[in-house]
Amino acid sequence: xxxxxxxxFDTTLRDGEQSPGATLTSAEKLEIAxxxxxxxxxxxxxxxxxxxxxxxxxVRRIAKEVGTAKxxxxxxxxxxxxxxxxxxxxxxxxxxxxxxxxxRIHTFLATSPIHMQYKLKMDPEEVVEQVREMVAYAKxxxxxxxxSPEDAGRSDPEFLYLVLGEAIKAGATIINIPDTVGxxxxxxxxxxxxxxxxxxxxxxGVIISVHCHDDLGLATANTLAGIQAGAQQAEVTIxxxxxxxxxxxxxxxxxxxxxxxxxxxxxxxxxxxxxxRTSRMVSNYTGIPVQPNKxxxxxxxxxxxxxxxxxxxxxxxxxxxxxRPDMVGLSHSKLxxxxxxxxxxxxxxxxxxxxxxxxxELDTAFQRFKELADRKKNVTDIDIEALVSDQIxxxxxxxxxxxxxxxxxxxxxxxxxxxxxxxxxxVHVQAAIGTGPVDATFSAINTVIQAPNTxxxxxxxxxxxxxxxxxEVSVRLEAENGSIPKRKSPQNNxxxxxxxxxxxxDTDIIVASAxxxxxxxxxxxxxxxxxxxxxxxxxLLQTSEQAA
Amino acid sequence: xxxxxxxxFDTTLRDGEQSPGATLTSAEKLEIAxxxxxxxxxxxxxxxxxxxxxxxxxVRRIAKEVGTAKxxxxxxxxxxxxxxxxxxxxxxxxxxxxxxxxxRIHTFLATSPIHMQYKLKMDPEEVVEQVREMVAYAKxxxxxxxxSPEDAGRSDPEFLYLVLGEAIKAGATIINIPDTVGxxxxxxxxxxxxxxxxxxxxxxGVIISVHCHDDLGLATANTLAGIQAGAQQAEVTIxxxxxxxxxxxxxxxxxxxxxxxxxxxxxxxxxxxxxxRTSRMVSNYTGIPVQPNKxxxxxxxxxxxxxxxxxxxxxxxxxxxxxRPDMVGLSHSKLxxxxxxxxxxxxxxxxxxxxxxxxxELDTAFQRFKELADRKKNVTDIDIEALVSDQIxxxxxxxxxxxxxxxxxxxxxxxxxxxxxxxxxxVHVQAAIGTGPVDATFSAINTVIQAPNTxxxxxxxxxxxxxxxxxEVSVRLEAENGSIPKRKSPQNNxxxxxxxxxxxxDTDIIVASAxxxxxxxxxxxxxxxxxxxxxxxxxLLQTSEQAA
Lengths: 548, 548
Known about the structure:
2 copies of one chain form a homodimer. By secondary structure, chain A is α/β, with parallel strands linked by helices. Chain A contains 18 helices and 16 strands. In chain A, about 40% of the residues lie in helices and about 20% in strands. In chain A, the strands form 4 sheets. In chain A, strands 1-2-3-4-5-6-7-8 form an 8-stranded parallel β-barrel, surrounded by 8 helices. In chain A, strands 9-10-11 form a 3-stranded antiparallel β-sheet. At the A-B interface, helix 4, helix 8, helix 9, helix 12 and strand 9 of A face helix 4, helix 8, helix 9, helix 12 and strand 9 of B.
């Protein structure tokens, strides 16, 4: 197949979500999938349905709600589910994706000597046979089947041609080549793809895809080298999140192809003006920050701009600028609404920003907006985005915070008092001291909720400029006991450690910290399965139950 | 010149420090320069001495103290100062670097059509003439002269060969090729270097250097492509910091060359086991965080490790690992000292960590360690590093914080009271309310210190695991009035906006916030020049005066 379109296959919700602590709720996954559809990605890899019943449900909801909606596109995106090369995983993947207008099953098996010997304990002939059988099995469900030879970057090329030829013969429509461990150089990876294009039987009828990791900082260059050698699909994540150093960044590939189109002569379907917003959403929901010097989406990526305009001494803005901030949807925060803005103006503004809330959600958001406008002079798009995304990200409220009172400083013992309402409606009031106000607050919450855990990460960002800014707190914690049902990793034969992220926003960072911690603890409690019966008063679970 | 050594030219203190908000004090620059020398970098670009008298002084101290000390190496590092291609800049650069055992002057002039026309307003003949004259002028001071044709990536190759040939004839020993705007692809950049190697008269007697930016996420690949085409020096920064999307990362180049040495057949002098520590120091001092999915130095870059060891189900660790964490100096935080540890053990431990403190500094650090050990069960290397680096980073104490008392939460108005001592010894006590405890605290400090400013950034990280963690706060602010003396940018004909960063650590994040804000305000006050007379009680200024 020959054309100039590079298909963007986004795996933020699958490979990206495997990042430590990036655990997303079903509601968050759905919101991100909608944003990806609007952004123009061609394929959404929505998860690994065999990991757990929750993961299956998450992919199913995306297939139903995003995989059938055009949202201004000519077709809904392809919804893809990952499956190891076995019947059970493929059955589960199909259960999840079959509701989409364009479903895809993505199955994989390792082909490198080290993986075949130590992980699979299979000889090469057995690997070929299993690939042939399982691609054919997936094909009985689904026309669109993608096959990946895991650790292709360290596989014998001749063996790869053989395996891939058999996969194509068995019905694979997409052949994806992963550099699983981020080991190759651009020359090597380009040569690998060129070799596959030249030597694989039947390759002319399928699309070659590339999937790179950034362990040596070469993911973007490797992906572009693969594309120049003939690949027509790039597997990427927003902000480059993913295990270890992460995956290739969607934004870098989209902007390299756009900025250097005279060089690459290629295009994507990405609406680059939605990149900044999608990047912020993924960072908020996963709790994984973007460093200021990250290409395209870092806070400083376009920071020249201010100085240049202030001084007005450069006559030609191309002197130091190869991309304009508006190309990726960046504009200066501006006063958009004040304390006298009405509900109608607020709703219209949310709609322009891409948020469609129902009446009840709108009521809550409007009330929070008015509270904020009372405290903060300038309410910007980013403030509003923070409020709404915080609201979406707090769905399972088993315990809720009713009140918090804290005293701290250098002159006494940091002390916090919390008032919380439990799942049965009981009000709990507890006080605790700590090494600081956050420690005291978390200790007080722990006195109410008996869920032993280890705090792995804690960070705060002022998400808007100025001294009266909204603060956003992200936490990540790990359950200490073994009571949390496990979740399978697709690559390894062992279960993943379950960590839980939470975030909270408030102009008071101690209040935001309490919200974030409680949000993570509520996720932990929900995952334990013990509180399902109490939780049916919340929005997310109602939606889940309707979907089930 | 032909050998297999790639010279690492670190420009963290020059191009890295041009990142918005990365402003470093002279004391911080000196500490970073010492760490770079230990890390094994061949050349330290210590600053742009013509920017301001402070910058000149910072480079001079590094030339004197780091440029003359072997620190376990066969020779001290080359100390390099940047100068535009004019006599005044070159004079100033020489004043700064001449104290080093191996001084270098680095001068540059733009050679791309767009820069020559719009920025320099010179025709190509004038550019050639100025390069010839200024390289020859620098050579009258210094044997080692580096020349860079700015925006080489967008320059006409034939014109480049001519300019570079003239620079070499005039005495340049290093020819550095910058991709100033991060626009090129690896193929293009490799071809540019190959063209220069093949066509520049006299090139066989000099070292070719490459200097890339990461605007499209290709800096590492471009640098490696340049090296494969014949470059023998790579210009890099720790954590890839720098203007916009930053520079090539030192750690990615060092680890790509090490991990793929069978492919590149090259080596560097970098002791990779010091990478993690140097990365943390630069992140702490500049206040620029490293994202978890950053290659090599991100918190998740080696995160596989835990799962693999916990489960013990993988028989061969190379299955998913191409580098081991200990190669970059990462080890799990461990209990190193407890509340009963004595001063001698503490001093020995600091020494092992690379910190050599004088008696007075040691007294302060030990007292802070004991205070911490009283509050926090496990005191780790990272805690101690935070304490000591915080102490080094708080040198100019014009106003100091004596006490802070804060109350906040959902049940009242956030209120803060500060007690501060001014430069003349006067005690000030002020209370203020705010949108949250941080806003209230900053407002109270503002009531004491009348220095109108805009807060640009505020962030908090828990730098150690666990609920009783030490929190580190970074702030960045901009002076509102025009009273701050300006500082020149080397690339543009206008002055840089002066922003001031501060950081503070404490187990109480509100106390840490107050320290961070006060540290940034003290830098602002010091830069205003009005408080010099009061500040001579501080360590940094004494050292400065002795050096001047």
